[in-house]
Amino acid sequence: MKILQIINNLDVGGAEALLSSYALNSSETTSVILTLVSSDSWIRSGLENSGVKVIDMELPSKYRFIGAMLGIARAIISEKPDIVHAHLFPPQYYVAFLRPFFRKIPFVFSEHSTSNRRRGISLLRPLEALSYRLYDGVIVISEAARKKLAMIHAGDNCTVVYGGTDEKRFSGPRKEEFDFVLVASLRGREKGVDIFLEALSIIKDKGYSAVVLGDGVMRSELVELRDRLGLSNAVDFRGNVDNVGEYLRRARAFVLPSRWEGLPVSIMEAMFAGTPVVASRTGGIPEVVPDDCALLFEPEDSEDLSKALVKVIDDNGLRLHLADNARKRAGRLFTLAAYTSRIDSFYKGMNRTRK
User: Fold this and answer.
1) Are the C-beta atoms of residues 199 and 257 closer than 8 Å to each other?
2) Number of helical H runs and strand E runs in the chain
3) What is the pLDDT of residues 62-110, one digit of tens each?
């Protein structure tokens, strides 16, 4: 079964990593990945080096509506996929509005988040709802995301499919060398890196050290905030790296202070690495790590986060307890094999429905 996967680019991010993991490991399907704009990352090179076909449309912007629509249509005609699968925005709209022209092929969309700004704009809500209705199937990354989506789209084409990650890349011996690690795309405010910096500034006298992995347009602004808060010697922004597992195993705790979330793969990675998790109680996070697997704090509450940071570092027994529970849970639910099997089953169901 051939799947045409359509995504903005293959920069480092949760949706991109999830797509890459599936494309590299499914024995039931062959993925062809179509990107709107160019990117140069370890995710893309890993796919191409493993023989996964990547087609780059090389648009000057992902918002080039006509160019994107034409390019996607050409790819569908030339590749003759069994299923077309769109990820993120704006491919969500482009692929949905091509649906009437390719009625014999199932069209699928993955909702990777619990929220987006378009749902809050009254003029766009009808368009947003229509885009979901045009798909044969919508993969929703968590129950929290499904409930949020139901506020504008209550259709029966939605299926919750939990993500997963390659546990072998993150498991291994631990050697704690610094206090906190945060892994996040810095392309927007949703990951709450500023909240983490504010929390660290509250407990600056503790002398904690932290590493932030990830990159994006917000990086320079966050570095400036770090320096203004007097944390320039405490927090190191390392950018994108291809050895995240090594950093996770060197940290005493993993922190994810998101404002909103779908189902963060980065937390699953920390679970397999045996790194205790401190995260905001929002979106799909409590579905990944319930209270016996993590310290959860209230979203956007830097003071609450600062207390959790002190608690997890000061209590070695708590860290071991949380990490052990989380590792066992990840082994049951979030392995790469489990995720790949869930997506394979979903695709087979789509194919049967259309025949």
Assistant:
1) yes
2) 14, 13
3) 999 999 999 999 999 999 999 999 999 999 999 999 999 999 999 999 9
Q: For residue 127, what are the CA distances in angstroms to 107, 134, 137, 149, 350? A: 17, 11, 17, 14, 24
Q: Give pLDDT, residue 354.
A: 62
For residues 211 and 279, give the distance between their C-alpha atoms in angstroms, rounded to a whole number: 16
Q: Which H or E run includes 36?
A: none
CA distance 355 to 350: 9
* Amino acid code (one letter) for 135: Y
210 forms beta bridges with 180, 235
Residue-wise pLDDT tens digits, 134-169: 999 999 999 999 998 998 887 789 999 999 999 999
pLDDT of residue 353: 64
pTM, to two decimals: 0.86
Question: Helix or strand or coil: residue 159?
Answer: strand
Contact 254, 277 (CB under 8 A): yes
Average confidence (pLDDT) over 186-197: 95
Which residue, among 223, 235, 229, has the nearest Cα to 201 in the 3D structure?
229
Q: Which bin fits 58, alpha (ψ -120 to 50), beta or left (φ > 0)?
A: left
Q: Is 321 helix (H, G, I), strand (E, B) or coil?
A: helix
What is d(CA 165, CA 272) in angstroms, rounded to the nearest whole number? 9
50-54: long-range contacts, CB 8 A cutoff, minimum separation 24: 50/24, 52/23, 52/24, 54/10
Distance CA 188, CA 193 (A): 10
Q: How far apart are CA 176 and CA 251, in angstroms?
A: 5
